[in-house]
Amino acid sequence: MNKKEITIALAGNPNSGKTTIFNNITGARQHVGNYPGVTVEKKYGYISYRGYKINVVDLPGTYSLTAYSEDEVVARNYIINENPDIVIDIIDSSNIERNLYLATQFIELGVPLILAFNMSDITKSKREKIDISLLSKLLASPIVETVGHKNKGIKDLLDAAIRHIENKDRQEIKIKYGEEIEIELEKISAIIQDKQIFPEKLNHRWIALKLLEQDKEIIDKIREESREVYQEIELEVDRSIKHLSNILRDNPATIIADSRYGFIRGALAETRKETEIEKVSVTDRIDSILTNRIVGLPIFAALMWLMFQFVFKIGAYPMDWIDMGFGKLGELISNVMPEGLLQSLIVDGIIGGVGGVIIFTPNIILLFLCIAILEDSGYMARVAFIMDRVMHKIGLHGKSFIPMLIGFGCTIPSYMGSRILENRKDRLITMHVNTFMSCGARLPVYILLAGAFFPNIAGNIIFSIYVIGIVMAILMAKLLRATRFKGESAPFVMELPPYRVPTFKGVLLHTWERTWLYLKKAGTIILAISIIMWILFTFPMIGKNYSNDYDLEIDSLEQSFESNEITQEEYEESISEIEAKKGAEQLSYSAAGRIGRFTEPVFKPLGFDWKLAVASISGIAAKEVVVSTMGTLYSIQEADEESETLRENIASEYNPLIGYNFMLFTLLYFPCMAGMAVFRREAGWKEMFFQIGYTLLLAWVVSFVVFQIGRLFI
Amino acid sequence: MYLNEIRPGAKCRIIKILGSGGISARLRDMGCIKEEEIEVIKIAPLGDPVDIKIKGYHLSLRKEEAKNIEVEKI
After folding, report:
1. Rounded to whole angstroms, how far apart are CA atoms A51 and A57?
2. Which of A105, A138, A166 is the last residue before a domain boundary?
3. Region of residue A547 (left: phi > 0; alpha: psi -120 to 50; beta: else)
4. DSSP strand pairing (A113-118 vs A86-92)
5. Residue A1: its pLDDT value, please?
6. Which of A88, A161, A95, A153 is nearest to A124 (CA)?
7. Theoretical Cys-Cys bridge with A624: which of A441, A463, A499, B41, CB 3.0 to 4.6 Å?
8. Do B43 and A293 touch (CB under 8 A)?
9. What is the helix, strand, coil percentage profile of chain B, to 5?
10. Does the global pTM surpass 0.95?
11. Which residues partner with A113 through β-bridges?
12. Do A258 and B45 touch (CB under 8 A)?
């Protein structure tokens, strides 16, 4: 009781082994959320240790603390606004020099700092021998050696953190940037001090430094604060930059970076005992095959094929079990509950709707398992390396390839998989075009319609839809890049980290937290939407307003059956026919049917009547639902995509042009409500509505053009 | 000359990072600073980006970005 509470922020370069250390400290007591206002993942956890409750926040992995990327701004703002008691910077021991660059910026910020020299590389061939205690003095920060994947040094790290926090006379050091820059820093700090626009606790020297580096975040913050002060500061900073550029013959930002690296190099030179010259490392040897000019691509293609098979073929089994489970649950409830509205709500609405979301869980688990392995092993960076040429041509990033590929299986994991893109614009464009990769749920619709209208060339027709989807994705990526997400795509400057054996714990935790996010957040919204969809298709009830007295028909059928006038087979067939007709009339009478008829004028220029409109609306729940809705609309019970009667009915009602057009429409409009719930979670309401709006518009325009032009030829 | 002109297998030294703003800041953060040595390792199977070794680690960048790095052969 009465525990003292401290907060530790974990920082470090990507691939420094930071996540492994975070997992080792917090174990399963961790949570994942988002930083407010951005899509950057925030992981936090806690541990009770030596009478302390230690909160641990895992900052995004960054190389620096400039305002270059969202991640860096988040990491920096966390430290400025939340004031953690201490920052632990994880340094990858196989690359101390570059890793210390981030550390110098924590030193500049003036936060209490501990360095964890982590051995995360499987290839220990290259390790500098360094006088740790001397380096620790030079950097004025304790250094602890850890081995993340062997869980070594974690206790030492926590002990050092507690000691350093309780240490009242911590040393502070300054990195010197040369006399000229120091003079200008003094001047700018003085103005900041004078105007008091930033809270006292914030390091004014650091702000001045950021201003000389032309840091956009800080400049904007001052402008928001006060225009007047901003103008005054801007004047001074511009003068300083001009002056410094003149006498130093280079941009101050460059000189500052040089000084930081100079500081590190100086400290390392003083403490380095010997350097083992590395031979060809394991990573280089692996890369000589995996990114080889000739075999690199085929190996990549084979790995992607394997991953796709693994996610969707293996996933199909548990999906069947879940499907069966929900079917059985529905049956069970139908049996114990009296027939009626409540039963229909629970069985058709809730179990049907929520079950339709949960059924994708196996895919999502397997996909994230694959992504976690690809990421943790270091191969993901190679995927980007291999595919960037192609993806860059269409305005995307090398890493966009994997989520797009996944989209052919299911759009939901493809939205979630887009997280591997660090740059927000790249991520959003990828998500917005992933929709056009034909997912597994759209295939039944194609099979039904292609079979009905083009029985002899169904395969080719379906293939053409897939190709059109890919072409649309390319066109839309280019269009979005040129308009809504204007601005350079993220420059491609990416580390190719050393290969590593992924840790079992890390991969499982990674997979689990993403799966859980899907189930939890998507689940709640889906429940609400399922109920709304159910209401639309159920109310108003037709009651006694059927065109025929079906009950009377059923009665007379029963009589004829009892008096053996017809066989059981004939009886059941007729009953099912009547039930189907009833269903069709109820659907036509329901709100969904009315919406269908009300919106018919909108669909008319595409060649669609109100029935196809209703089918499209039902596709919002999930695209495969289009097939069963069409079954109800054309009075066929238990219709599936292979149903011949349904095909005959449809083929007699529409021409092949309309059939093809309806496939196009189904391809292009947003995938499903579960997908949209995930989209909102990943990108926010605004982007979700944009996705809905622009895909609907695109679907309409494309179908309109195809129908109006096609009509001239038939 | 510029980094994009260096062939795989060759080494060079950075003279200057050109341009300002995002890309040059990023390059600096990744350790591309004056007088640093670079070894060009390979070009990706499809012809872009390139894989270089700097400060003992592998960095990949597009030829477009490599144009921002002025170098001399060593």
Report:
1. 19
2. A166
3. alpha
4. parallel
5. 45
6. A95
7. A441
8. yes
9. 20, 40, 40
10. no
11. A87
12. no
Same domain for A105 and A17: yes
Domain co-membership, A60 together with A135: yes
Residues of A in contact with B56 (CB under 8 A): 94-95, 97-98, 126
Has residue B70 got a pLDDT over 70?
yes
What is the per-residue pLDDT for A289? 93
Q: Give the whole-angstrom CA distance, residue A92 versus residue A349.
A: 52
Chain B interface includes A95 (CB < 8 A): yes
How far apart are the CA of A440 and the nearest CA of chain B, in angstroms?
30
Say yes or no: A35 and A72 in one domain.
Answer: yes
**Residue numbers of chain A with a pLDDT score lower than 50:** 1, 123, 125
Query: For residue A377, what are the contacts with CB-CB under 8 A and spacing of at least 6?
Result: A499, A500, A501, A502
A410 contacts A360 by C-beta, under 8 angstroms: yes
For residue B16, is pLDDT > 70? yes
Percent share of chain B, pLDDT over 90:
66
- Do A495 and B30 count as a contact with CB atoms less than 8 A apart? yes
State whether the Cα torsion A653-A659-A661-A667 is positive or negative. positive
Of residues A77, A104, A61, the one with CA closest to residue A257: A104
* φ, ψ of residue A178 in degrees (nearest 5): 95, 150
CA A584, CA A671: separation in Å to the nearest integer? Answer: 25
Q: What's the pLDDT tens digit per position in A407-447?
A: 887 888 889 888 878 778 889 999 999 999 988 788 888 88
Beta bridge partners of B52: B40, B59
- Total domains in the fold of chain A: 2
Does residue A9 sit in the same domain as residue A128? yes
DSSP-assigned beta bridge partners for residue B14: B71
Q: What is the ipTM of this complex?
A: 0.94
Tokens of A628: 């069963």
Query: Percent of chain A having pLDDT more than 90?
Result: 28
Q: With contacts defined as CB-CB under 8 Å, which chain B residues touch A491?
A: 22-23, 26, 61-62, 64-65
Q: Which residues of A378-404 are buried (b: 16+ CB within 10 A; e: fewer)?
A: bbbbbbbbbbbbebbebbbbbbbbbbb
Residue A593 Cα distances to A380, A630, A631, angstroms: 48, 12, 14
Q: Is residue A367 part of a domain?
A: no
Q: Give the Cα separation of B15 and B74 in Å (integer).
A: 12
User: Chain A residue with minimal CA distance to B56?
Assistant: A95
Give the structural domain span for A183: 179-274
Say yes or no for a CB contact (<8 Å) between A291 and B45: yes
A133 and A187 housed in the same domain: no
Helix (H) or strand (E) holding A179: helix A179-195
Nearest to residue A405, comparing CAs of A422, A425, A423, A390? A390
Q: Taking CB atoms and an 8 Å limit, are A494 and B59 in contact across chains?
A: yes
A202: domain CATH number is: 1.10.287.1770
CA A343, A345, A347, A352: dihedral to nearest 10 degrees? 180
Decide if A98 and B61 are in contact by the 8 Å CB cutoff: no
Please indicate whether, in this complex, the C-beta atoms of B51 and A214 are within 8 angstroms of each other: no
C-alpha span between A696 and A702 (Å, rounded)? 10
Nearest chain A residue to B57, by CA: A95
pLDDT tens across A506-520, in order? 888 878 877 886 777
Query: Taking all residues of chain A, what is their mean pLDDT, rounded to a whole number?
Result: 85
* C-alpha gyration radius of chain B: 11
**What's the pLDDT at A182?**
92
Residues A24 and A144 in one domain: yes
- Fold classified for B3-73: SH3 type barrels. (2.30.30)
How do the domains of chain B map onto residue ranges?
3-73
Which chain B residue's Cα is nearest to A495?
B59
The CATH number assigned to the domain holding A76 equals 3.40.50.300
The reply to whether A68 touches chain B by the CB within 8 Å rule is yes
**Has residue A665 been placed in a domain?**
no
